[in-house]
Write a structure and sequence with these properties.
Layout (H helix, E strand, L loop, with lengths): L2 H21 L4 H19 L4 E3 H4 L5 H9 L4 E3 L10 E3 L4 E4 H19 L7 H11 L10 H11 L2 E6 L5 H15 L5 E5 L2 H14 L5 H4 L6 E3 H5 L20 E4 L7 H10 L5 E6 L12 H5 L7 H11 L16 E4 L10 H10 L3 H10 L5 E5 L7 H10 L1 H9 L4 H8 L2 E5 L8 H16 L14 E4 L13 E6 L5 E6 L5 E4 L7 E3 L2 E3 H4 L4 E7 L10 H8 L2 E9 L1 H8 L9 H5 L15
Parallel strand pairs: 2-3, 5-9, 5-10, 6-7, 6-8, 8-9, 11-20, 12-18, 12-19, 19-20
Antiparallel strand pairs: 1-4, 3-4, 13-14, 13-17, 14-15, 15-16
Length: about 600
């Protein structure tokens, strides 16, 4: 959504609130406050905030006065609101103002997570489990604790495990070994693998199969054969968009593993946790330093901000993992639930991409850029490009990046396997969609370049041409296409253009272009759209230094989509602006997790 559209919606929402309050007899001061505060709250929601502190809304610093004025409006409840209230806004005891929907979702998620954290440990044969952990996580040289083994031990013991780690820290390796342990103990265990996007789900399954190659054949046969998007896992209905699985109709699984959990927004996270049976294990994998979800909330970042351990759990983990658990970060919102994986096996700390990611996360803009400009490591490259329009060198780099794809289209114009293999090696990422340095402009340039090089003149009035890559922007449950799916336009043997998509069971399926749901060209993607993906090489185009979207998380997420080589193109000012700005999303989830325990009777995960 554009800034202008968001502003129009926010203004309309604020006027609606004021009209509602006026009809209920609210005083003029309350109406004026609602117009101002309602607009700011709506804009904050479009920026991903779950709530806004009254301290940021009180113009004269009088928080108590603003609270009293809002409560006098007849459309704002003091939280928790009375049962049956339909007032659209809620202000809690700590001075956070919410849309009613966000307040209810956050409270429900906090209750569900608190109940899981309060559940007793699984009853395990610790000798057998210890032997399995030693088998799947052999002893390592050195004094450092094996955090992968610790994470697996925690997931065996507890009903909720949150594992945070950057690229190459072994999240998938840990899960493969963990599933080996679980399935060794109970081969009939029902396991679900899921991720927020189809691309991330496919990558998860592919990586798990690769890591599981060393497992005995009998165990490999027990592993899941597919990975789901979270929406498909929950059984979203094509007509209403609601989920078939929820608190009254739980998922039929004993273990649910969700990768790229940083992409879960508040609403989806709540629906997911609600649908997981109380006695099942829920394992959330992600990277706390990545971008949060597009919609409201930063659930994974809040849950993985730190860890704390009860003495009884710490003692059992020490016995199972061979070393006591490590306390990381701040005091965690949930006890006995969080492990950080900190050692990258893909990027050594001193390697190009690893060093770049570390410098970005640390906010060391000047030192990192100075090193990047002089880096001898071919894995990283800086391209000075500080104009409003992309310069000639940047456009040439964009074109060169798709050289393999161009050659594949020339040599095998009808072969989707060859085309996809070449196309997926490289991607251009941008921080913004619109504007001269955005996705739309870069895609227009590359479309013209590809057609010219291949000699394809587009048909009159048509956007389609051989080689055009597209990304689906809206779920179509009838066609089985989902937001983020990538397709390639290829001609069949008779010259008819069709769009090819990877099929879930392997191979490809083709669709006529006219049947596709909303989509756009995909030579370049926003960093948000690229989450959950990995490419051999990435060219990241930075916007103007004044762009509001620039942040440390955006830069880190873009850089770490690259497995082997990354080029950053932009101005020093834009790089410094991104490194110097952390994304802060207002939320009360951590505070609500610290409230009194839920009255729900917790259940331990199934034991052996």
């Amino acid at each position: 959504m554009s800034d202008h559209a968001a502003l129009d919606l926010a203004t309309g929402f604020a006027e609606h609130l004021a009209d509602w309050a006026r009809a209920l007899g609210a005083p003029p001061a309350a109406l004026a406050a609602l117009r101002r505060v309602g607009r700011q709250l709506a804009l904050a929601g479009s920026a991903g905030h779950v709530c806004v502190p009254l301290a940021e809304l009180a113009e004269d610093g009088d928080v108590a006065g603003l609270r009293a004025t809002l409560l006098a409006s007849a459309v704002v409840d003091a939280g928790p609101p009375p049962s049956g209230s339909a007032r659209p806004l809620v202000v809690d005891a700590d001075g956070r103002l919410y849309l009613r929907r966000h307040f209810d979702l956050e409270g429900a998620l906090a209750d569900l997570l608190r109940a899981r954290a309060a559940a007793p440990d699984a009853v395990l044969d610790e000798e057998a489990v210890g032997a399995l952990l030693a088998r799947f996580f052999p002893p390592r040289a050195g004094a450092r604790p094996d955090r992968q083994r610790l994470a697996a031990a925690l997931a065996l013991l507890r009903p909720l495990t949150v594992i945070s780690g950057g690229p190459g820290t072994g999240k998938t390796t840990t899960v493969a070994a963990l599933l080996g342990c679980l399935l060794s103990l109970q081969p009939t265990l029902r396991v679900a693998l899921a991720a927020p996007t189809g691309k991330a789900a496919a990558r998860m399954l592919e990586a798990l199969r690769a890591r599981a190659a060393s497992l005995p054949a009998a165990l490999r046969a027990c592993l899941p054969e597919e990975a789901w998007t979270v929406h498909r896992l929950l059984g979203v209905t094509a007509t209403s968009g609601r989920f078939r699985h929820h608190g009254g109709h739980l998922l039929p699984f004993d273990v649910v593993v969700v990768d790229e959990a940083s992409m879960l927004d508040l609403a989806l996270a709540t629906s997911l946790v609600e649908a997981v049976p109380p006695g099942a294990r829920l394992i959330l994998l992600g990277d706390k330093d990545q971008l949060a979800a597009v919609e409201a909330g930063a659930v994974f970042a809040e849950l993985s901000a730190g860890s704390r351990w009860r003495a009884s759990t710490a003692a059992r983990l020490a016995a199972l993992a061979g070393a006591p658990p490590v306390a990381d970060g701040e005091a965690g919102a949930l006890p006995d639930s969080v492990v950080w994986l900190t050692e990258s096996h893909r990027f050594a700390a001193g390697s190009g991409i690893g060093r770049l990611a570390t410098g970005i996360n640390g906010g060391h803009a000047a030192a990192t850029l100075a090193w990047l400009r002089d880096a001898a490591d071919g894995a990283v490259q800086w391209l000075d490009d500080d104009g409003r329009q992309p310069g000639a060198a940047l456009l040439a780099a964009c074109e060169a990046g798709y050289g393999d794809y161009l050659e594949a289209l020339r040599c095998a114009p009808h072969d989707p396997a060859t085309a996809f293999a070449a196309f997926e090696r490289f991607r251009i990422l941008a921080a913004v969609h619109d504007g001269p340095r955005g996705v739309a402009a870069l895609n227009r340039h590359l479309g013209q370049y590809l057609r010219a090089r291949l000699g394809h003149a587009p048909a009159a009035g048509s956007a389609w041409y051989p080689g055009r890559p597209v990304i689906v922007l809206r779920n179509d449950y009838v066609l089985g296409l989902y937001n983020g799916d990538i397709g390639l336009t290829l001609a069949d043997a008779d010259g008819r253009l069709q769009v090819c998509f990877p099929a879930a069971g392997g191979g490809f399926r083709t669709l006529a272009a006219l049947r596709l749901p909303e989509h756009e060209t995909a030579f370049a993607l926003t960093v948000h759209k690229a989450q959950g993906s990995e490419f051999d090489a990435v060219l990241m185009v930075l916007p103007d230094a004044t762009a509001a979207v620039l942040s440390r998380e955006l830069l880190y997420t873009g850089v770490t989509r690259a497995a082997r080589q990354v080029t950053l193109a932009g101005s020093a000012a834009a790089f410094a602006a991104a490194c110097g700005r952390r994304t802060l999303r207002h939320s009360g989830l951590a505070a609500r997790l610290a409230e009194r325990p839920s009255t729900t009777v917790p259940q331990p995960p199934s034991g052996y």
